[in-house]
Amino acid sequence: MTGFFDSGFGGLCILEAFMRECPGEPFVYIADNANCPYGNKSRAEIETIAGQIAEELIDRHQCRLIVVACNTATAQAIDFLRNKYPQVPFVGLEPAIKPAAQATKTGVVGVLATRGTFGGRLYRETSRKFAAGVTVLQRMADDWVELVERGVVDGPEAEAAVRTAVEPLLAAGADQLVLGCTHFPHLRPLIERVANGRAAVIDSCQAVARQARRLLECQPPKI
Ligand code: DGL
């Protein structure tokens, strides 16, 4: 059994990619709507929440692999989870800065994520390691999470929110837009429409699903 969790519907884009990579593989997905959003919670709060969910996935559902289908929970709690449950492999999410830095022609990359993701060690390290010589612009778009939770992924309200965050990045020359929150791929068609060919939109869904498949294949069969 593979376990997935997120603060809500965001991680379903990861699950969808996983179902393509590993058809027929059993899974449990916990959408923690009760605690949504994670983006503005403290590290201690997210560690507590993530710890409880991991315990449920391991003890109740016998998960042998857990995908933290949330950039914020990865940024704030994956070290804690790996220390607490060393017997279970965890796959986490981080903004796809490396492919964006490799692909940019303008030398400017825009990253959209939550406050919690930008505040994490992983994000700082990845930017330092993979984006040397590239200007990385950060844009918090926590309000998009709430839109997606309400199922508002198109129409005037969603478009206004997307334009507010994306237009300044485009105006500053970003030709790559990195979706650093698993809720954001749900807005992808709208983001692409707003970008209108001026920037490529990059997410981590398929890459994470592939990583989960690799780990599942090299795990011994369940006893
Ligand atoms: N989907 C999450 C992420 O990838 C969490 C968003 C939130 O709850 O603020 O960051």
Notes on the structure:
With about 220 residues, the protein is an alpha/beta fold. It has two domains: about 1-95 and about 205-215, Rossmann fold (3-Layer(aba) Sandwich); about 95-205, Rossmann fold (3-Layer(aba) Sandwich). The chain is built from ten helices and eight strands. The protein has helices at about 10-20, 45-60, 70-85, 95-105, 115-120, 120-130, 140-150, 155-170, 190-195, 205-215, and strands at about 1-5, 25-30, 65-70, 90, 110-115, 135-140, 175-180, 200. Helix 9 links the parallel strand 7 and strand 8 (about 200). D-glutamic acid binds next to helix 3 and helix 7.
Q: Low-confidence parts, pLDDT < 50 over ≥5 residues?
A: none
- Tell me about the largest β-sheet: 4 strands, parallel
Can you tell me the overall shape?
A: globular
Distance between the termini: 12 Å
- Order of strands, widest sheet: 2-1-3-4
| Total beta strands | 8
- CATH topology value of the largest domain: Rossmann fold
Share of helix among residues? 40-55%
Structural domains: how many: 2
* Tally of helical segments: 10
Proper CATH architecture of the largest domain = 3-Layer(aba) Sandwich
